[in-house]
Design goal:
mainly alpha, flat
């Protein structure tokens, strides 16, 4: 699926947009974020399903890195190691591709 395809513009985009608006009103931001995550994974899987596994691994890596950095910011001993590891990991994936 490409951004300029008819399927994306007339089916996928309106369904996700309306679903997002409804979920924000009914279920809140967490439900909306979950819908957007699943819709993004579906969008990427439509084009190349192999990379969905990479996206899930990177999402988990960044999520747990952010939790670690948030713990450090809330009173833990600040170390540069967690931040450097997060940045280096993401840059390594970018450099590989």
């Amino acid at each position: 699926m490409v951004f300029s395809s008819i399927i994306f513009l007339w089916i996928f985009l309106p369904i996700v947009f309306l679903g997002n608006v409804l979920l924000i009103r009914i279920g809140g931001v967490k439900a909306s974020n979950l819908l957007l995550l699943l819709a993004s994974l579906f969008f990427y899987a439509w084009g190349e399903p192999v990379y969905v596994i990479l996206l899930l691994l990177l999402t988990a890596f960044n999520y747990f890195s952010a939790l670690d950095l948030a713990d450090l910011a809330s009173g833990g001993r600040p170390t540069r190691g967690a931040l450097i590891l997060n940045i280096a990991g993401n840059l390594a994936v970018l450099a590989f591709f």
